[in-house]
Amino acid sequence: MQDQDLGLLLLTLPGNVAYATGITAAAADADHVLLERLRVLVTPDDDPRVLDAEVPHAEVASLVREQAPDARLGVDDLSPELSRLLDEAGIAAIDPSTVLSAAKAVKTAEEVSLIAEAQRINEEAGALVREACHAGVPATDLTGLFLEAALAAGADASVVDPIWQAMPASVADGPFSVTGWVVFPTATTGRPFETGDVVWVDTGISVDGYLSDYGRTWLVDSDPTPRQQDHAQRWRDVADRVLDAVKPGATAADLTRAAQEAGEDRPWLPHLYLAHGSGTESAEMPFVGTDLGPDFDATIVLEPGMVLVLEPVIWDDGHAGYRAEEIVVVTDDGWQALSSLPHEPFT
Question: What is the C-alpha to C-alpha distance for residues 214 and 219, in angstroms, rounded to an integer?
């Protein structure tokens, strides 16, 4: 905040509130959480001041004016009413995302420990669900099994609606996409699985407000064909090249170059990322391989404590493909894995 001349932050988004205070929003539908969320006032020097949902906007605006009348104010989400009240008070609010991103990008050892614990629970629940993924089973049944297992093991909440998506063989067989790429993710339905389905999995749960990310490719009641084994091996090769480049001082551009070194043509979904961070949000800085392009990637420099979720994709149009995720933390001389589940049934 001092570096960017911000005297006060007003935080309202649940992930930012959790980061500033350790207070996590109760698991509920999004509308409920957003309507009844806390507000937090943060200065560079004092402890955060928590305001509950019942505090009127007029009182919030008054507190802002009293606490930092001449300071630049950063607000992560403005309601129309609060925006009007701040304008009337002569207070200009700006987007504090650069401050928040810089602060949240490098994790403490305690934060890394919470992410690792969330990942362990996520993977163990995922492994249990994989054993139940058979022809004739509705995908929504897997969601119920996953949530039951994850919450029983200590998860606070599911922060990603569990995805068990049977992938089309080709882009033309699936939903339309303006990117020209395969559509993923789509909402889980009661469609029963069929023998031979290629299922892309994506789940996320939280522990004490810190999030994990689990992604794998499953096959329904079938062994991988040589072509499918090749998809998995190509994914592994991409991931290994990226991991070889992960170290302090490397840039996100170094990682995207490594991913494409063997001739793979952008082996990740263009509407998502080659890699992203994880913390109090399921996807947060650092972002690697976004549509902001290589110039943006070149500005992101890895530091010890940054957490990366790698999510390359190998797509073989006409034969589906392979997607999985690995999560690592940058160390003083490289990286350490936070995920450990094998990529069964692939070798």
Answer: 16
CATH topology of domain 8-105: Creatine Amidinohydrolase; Chain A, domain 1 (3.40.350)
* Residue 260 one-letter amino acid: Q
Beta-carbon contacts of residue 278 (< 8 Å; ≥ 6 apart): 115, 211, 212, 213, 284, 307, 309, 327
Return the axis-axis angle of helices 80-88 and 57-67, rounded to nearest 10°.
40
> What CA–CA distances, in Å, run from 80 to 32, 35, 167, 178, 187?
18, 14, 41, 32, 31
Phi and psi at residue 114, to the nearest 5°: -70, -40
CA distances for 159 relative to 27, 47, 116, 210, 280, angstroms: 8, 28, 16, 10, 10
Q: What is the domain partition of the chain in residue ranges?
A: 8-105, 109-337
Helices (H) and strands (E) in the chain, counts: 10, 16
Pairing of strands 210-211, 73-75: unpaired
| Measured distance CA(52)–CA(40) in Å, rounded | 9
CA angle (18, 19, 25) in 5-degree steps: 10
* Parts of the chain with a pLDDT under 50: none
Encode pLDDT of 218-257 as tens digits.
Answer: 999 999 999 999 999 999 999 999 999 999 999 999 999 9
In this structure, CATH architecture of domain 109-337: Alpha-Beta Complex (3.90)
Query: What does the mean pLDDT of the chain come to?
Result: 92
**pLDDT (tens digit, 9 = 90+) per residue, 249-259?**
999 999 999 99
- Is 344 in a helix, a strand, or coil? coil
**Global confidence as pTM:** 0.91
